[in-house]
Design a protein that fits this description.
29 helices, 974 residues, 6-stranded parallel β-sheet, single chain
């Protein structure tokens, strides 16, 4: 039966390519005369209210409204994307009434998760939405592929916006003057960066880029993974077959993927050769198994046919008729040398080819790590891969370079003054955390409260033993639980592979010994006997049943699960051994059939390895991780976080066994879980700062990519953001934080300095009122009940506060100095702050320690600690305290305390560095605190008005090689 209403709405929405318009008018024009009810909006509302799952009309509106909600650029609304205000503008332009709006908003809620943050130079606009829509053959195909894979409307629209943001910042491929943009896209570890650069590639070739070079890792294993993804989801069957008849077995000899389990069903089909459908073909210069060796068909492979021979290739008359060339190559000196030698033979046409270079894992191998002090006569010396990439960019003057990484610190430390290098001078884009992604928040309770650690993390301490048997039991048990779920209606696709990762060392000989030990342990584990079943039953009860997802089927007892345990054991033991070693220096070490997640139906194995398991390699089905390896570089450690990623249908089963007391050197031990948390905080801070400064002010960027390095932080003294030879020098002068918390943490360690600091707070402590006030936070998404706490308060003038802050001593003064520079200017030079409301929270628990400090009224001492190896405290302020202070600042008018628009709020804590209450009490015998044992720690929130009309948020000093040696240039940034 024909759905006339759906057909009409499809026609009307198709006519709204540039944004929402008066729906009723368009519906009247486009409607069929014999179906007058279809233009009645009440009929539409009734359809929405009565719609069931899978209603095509609701799906159509879901796609359309989500795309409008997320559009970063819109001529029809001034409201920010992803907001109720944007949706209201949409309804206004459509001319919908209140009842229809309510029905639509309930059926299609506004997607409010954050989008990509873009730091960019100003650029010439050439890639509008109309331009993109006019040539979108490969993008439209890719979008349909993602929807078939089950991507949500919000996920597709987010990818559309993020990839559009990249392509619009590349140079116009038809531009007469050659220009090569340089950019960087920052994602999360195992979060779908490949999908983004596939989208960018699709849009770029649609727009006119005719040579795409993807640098796909340092191993053929990684390169072939990337090649297959591009072939499957973008390039498609027809471009792979190149005219061969898929029904003719003789014609298929030598054609890729004939032995692939997913060919041809899961490979996109364009419905014919694209060149016969009004588009253009893609010629593959590399295949799944063959990296770049030489131009297989000779140099003519890159000799583009021109429709108008007298015009250059980049002229639109030639460009849009030419086929695109795509190659995926390893970052290997030999491979890149062959490519460079071939390109040099081609001649002048190179200067006419609009090219795109995608550098996956761009902080690995691509960055120049030579020591500038060793350069002869100041001439830049380059490492092999970095030198070859710069040569490639030099040979292709119209080449655009876009790096992709989850650990960007090395890239933003590249010398901005080196014009030949890969510093992202034009743009830096931080992708949002995708929906369904398991990341840092799922393994770490960053706010000090929550259940992430209890649910997923199992610490390995000296007194716990190595817990390797328990981890292996968890691997068998989770495999059985996956099989149980698949048998009870949960889609089994995500359970095709089931893996455990063991990562203890980078030494290959230790991998072999560990694999032998695990194999022996496996055969002694008695998974078919009473002893093994007893262990698994106990683990199910004490662990996995406690944290099971209530929305998924679960066995009521171990006996219900027992048959699936048997099958899981069989799958893991297939081939006779449960372990695969993944290491080695040659490609042969990685060409194991059991490690091929694409061609092997089921990889149910324990993977033992080192570095090669931590860079770009996707461990499919990873459920249990056993991790005990140390490193002194944050980016290296972060890349080892293979437990981050998408775990549909088994998030609750993921377990991380991690070393909490791992030897480093002869005398030192480190907590790897804390180390991961520290670098995650560093990266989250970096992303938060990018988001904060991404907003345009008066239509202009606040900062450019060259100004990003000062935003990189370091929380652990032994764990640097990147290797020393990747770090670029920059100094942040000022951070302006109107309405935002400032919470320094690098307080002095020496008791004498602590005592002097406490003495400087004496006047304020003496002014505290002895009568406590009660502050209340209302119910919210975290709690259905209001929460209250008591506090002592006072007021202090701005001049007095700055005087105290300016006299304080710090363990690392450079961290607070940019904030102090800002605060000192709030005397009227930058903006005017009159005074500060001081709040000293009082702890509510019965065993709190109270003490007088320098004669003050009794105050609650707060217990905080600097864990082993840390240079700074963790979070100082409590969540509820910080929430209350922010509410007072945000106003207008707090029900507890009301302040003027020129008053800031300070949370002040007398902190004792201790591990337990007894240690805290020892700092204050007889109710009087020793000033040298009390750190007066604080959080400041300046008023929102504490900024000038320019809205500049950063000032910094930057040094790069384009300026004279040791000459610093001070720049203001808004």
């Amino acid at each position: 039966m024909t759905d006339h209403l759906f057909n009409l709405h499809g026609d009307v929405l198709a006519a709204m390519r540039r944004g929402p318009k008066a729906f009723a008018k368009l519906a009247f024009v486009l409607s069929e005369a014999e179906e007058p009810a279809d233009i009645d909006l009440n009929h539409f509302r009734d359809r929405i209210v009565a719609a069931g799952p899978g209603d095509e009309l609701i799906a159509l509106w879901h796609r359309t409204l989500t795309a409008w909600d997320l559009a970063e650029q819109s001529d029809w609304s001034d409201a920010p994307p992803r907001t109720d205000a944007r949706r209201t503008d949409t309804h206004d332009r459509l001319g919908f009434g209140a009842d229809l709006r309510k029905a639509l908003d309930e059926a299609v809620p506004v997607f409010k998760e954050p989008g990509a943050a873009v730091i960019s130079k100003e650029f010439t606009s050439w890639y509008s939405r109309d331009t993109a829509a006019a040539r979108a053959f490969y993008w439209n195909s890719y979008e349909q592929t993602l929807r078939r894979k089950g991507w949500s409307d919000a996920a597709v629209s987010s990818l559309d916006e993020a990839s559009h943001a990249v392509v619009e910042r590349l140079s116009d491929p038809t531009r007469p003057e050659a220009y090569g943009a340089r950019g960087l896209v920052v994602g999360y570890v195992q979060s779908g960066k490949t999908a983004n650069f596939t989208g960018v590639t699709a849009k770029a070739i649609d727009a006119g880029y005719r040579l795409v070079i993807v640098l796909g890792g340092t191993l053929n294993l990684l390169r072939s993974q990337t090649q297959r993804r591009l072939d499957m989801e973008l390039i498609g069957q027809e471009n792979i077959l190149r005219g061969a008849d898929p029904a003719d077995t003789d014609a298929l000899v030598g054609v890729d993927y004939q032995d692939d389990e997913d060919w041809p069903a899961k490979f996109v089909s364009h419905g014919g050769r694209p060149s016969t459908l009004g588009a253009f073909d893609i010629e593959r210069l590399t295949t799944r198994d063959d990296d770049y060796k030489s131009l297989l068909n000779g140099i003519r492979t890159l000799e583009f046919e021109k429709q108008v021979r007298t015009q250059p290739l980049y002229d639109p008359a030639n460009l849009h008729h030419a086929a695109a060339r795509v190659m995926v190559v390893k970052k290997n000196a030999g491979v890149l040398d062959k490519l460079l030698r071939d390109l040099k033979k081609i001649g002048p046409i190179l200067s006419e080819i609009p090219a795109l270079i995608i550098d996956d894992e761009s902080d690995q191998a691509s960055v120049n790590t030579t020591d500038p002090a060793k350069w002869e006569n100041g001439k830049v010396a380059r490492k092999a891969i970095n030198g070859q990439i710069t040569q490639l960019l030099g040979l292709l003057p119209r080449a655009q370079y876009v790096g992709y990484t989850a650990t960007p610190f090395a890239n933003v430390f590249v010398d901005p003054g080196d014009e030949e290098d890969i510093f992202p001078r034009d743009f830096l884009i931080s992708l949002p955390r995708p929906t369904g992604y398991m990341g840092v928040q799922d393994f770490h309770d960053l706010e000090g409260e929550g259940s992430a650690e209890e649910t997923h993390v199992r610490g390995i301490y000296d007194d716990t033993g190595d817990r390797l048997q328990e981890a292996m039991d968890a691997f068998v048990l989770t495999g059985a639980l996956k099989l149980y779920r698949a048998a009870h209606g949960v889609p089994e696709g995500p359970f095709r592979h089931h893996t455990m990762l063991v990562h203890e060392s980078v030494q290959q000989r230790e991998h072999a010994a560990l694999a032998l030990r695990i194999n022996s342990m496996w055969h002694r584990s008695a998974y078919t006997g009473q002893e093994g079943h007893a262990r698994l039953a106990a683990l199910l009860t004490k662990d996995f049943q406690r944290f099971a997802d209530d929305g998924l089927p679960a066995p009521t007892s171990y006996d219900d699960l027992k048959p699936y345990v048997s099958r899981a054991r069989q799958l893991i033991n297939s081939g006779g051994e449960p372990v695969i070693i993944v290491n080695g220096a040659t490609e042969r070490d990685y060409e194991q059939a059991e490690l091929d997640f694409d061609r092997t139906p089921h990889v149910w194995k324990i993977l033992v390895g080192g570095t090669k398991l931590s860079r770009g390699f996707t461990v499919e089905g990873l459920t249990v991780t056993y991790y005990r390896r140390t490193t002194q570089q944050a980016d290296t450690l972060m890349q080892m976080g293979r437990w981050f990623g998408f775990r549909p249908g088994y998030r609750d089963l993921v377990r991380l066994y991690i070393g909490r007391e791992v030897p480093m050197g002869k005398k030192k031990t480190v907590d790897l879980y804390d180390a991961f948390e520290a670098i995650c905080r560093d990266e989250e801070t970096f992303r938060t700062q990018l988001t904060r400064y991404a907003a345009l002010v008066d239509g202009k960027p606040q900062v450019t990519p060259a100004q990003i390095p000062p935003l990189v932080s370091q929380h652990l003294s032994w764990l640097k953001p990147a290797a020393r030879n990747k770090m670029f020098n920059a100094e942040l002068v000022e951070i302006r934080s109107p309405g935002q918390p400032i919470e320094p943490a690098a307080y002095p360690v020496e008791p004498a300095a602590t005592g002097r600091n406490t003495e400087r707070w004496r006047p304020l402590l003496a002014a505290l009122s002895p009568a406590p006030v009660t502050l209340t936070n209302p119910s919210d998404s975290t709690s259905s009940l209001p929460r209250s706490f008591s506090a002592l308060t006072t007021a202090i003038s701005h001049a007095e506060l700055v005087s105290v802050l300016g006299a304080l001593e710090w363990d690392r003064p450079e961290l607070f100095r940019p904030h102090l520079t800002y605060l000192s200017q709030l005397d009227g030079r930058l903006a005017k702050v009159d005074d500060w409301l001081v709040i000293v929270p009082q702890l509510s628990r019965s065993n709190r320690t109270e003490a007088s400090i320098l004669g003050s009224v009794p105050l609650s001492l707060a217990r905080r600690s600097r864990q082993a190896g840390k240079a700074v405290f963790g979070r100082i302020s409590g969540v509820e305290h910080r929430t209350s202070a922010q509410r007072i600042i945000d106003g207008p008018g707090s029900p507890d305390l009301s302040i003027s628009p020129t008053t800031g709020v300070m949370l002040l804590y007398p902190v004792v560095e201790s591990q337990n209450d007894a240690e805290t009490s020892s700092a204050a015998p007889h109710g009087v605190a020793d000033p040298s044992k009390v750190t007066m720690a604080f959080t400041l929130i300046p008023p929102k008005s504490a900024i000038d009309s320019s809205r500049q948020l950063l000032r910094f000093q930057a040094k790069d090689s384009s300026h004279a040696r040791d000459v610093f240039v001070t720049t203001a940034s808004s």
